[in-house]
């Protein structure tokens, strides 16, 4: 018996009531964390180096970047992180798809 692919797993999971909505609600937090990791790596920094620049522990950087973390970072934390790796934080609002506005 073969293991299901992520695509087939999501398709089946989304058939259950409320799953798709919860998944979509988590997407922005997941995307932010993926972006933090990608930018840090592109800038050539390790988690340890970012922690040192921010005068904190590596475990705090790890938690900030973790998609498993239930803690939502403060805007000031994201701003400081961005500056530590040579970026500035920019926030944008976009209309929801299908919202008609």
Topology record:
Elements: H1 6-13, H2 19-42, H3 47-53, H4 58-65, H5 75-84
Helix pairs in contact: 3-4
What does this structure look like?
With 101 residues, the protein is an all-alpha fold. It has a domain at 20-84: 434 Repressor (Amino-terminal Domain) (Orthogonal Bundle). The chain is 56% helix and 0% strand. It has five helices and no strands. The chain has helices spanning 6-13, 19-42, 47-53, 58-65, 75-84. The longest helix is centred in the N-terminal third of the chain and has 24 residues, at 19-42. The protein is globular and about 45 Å long. The model has no long low-confidence stretch (mean pLDDT 88).
Task: Briefly characterize the structure.
The protein has 101 residues and is mainly α.
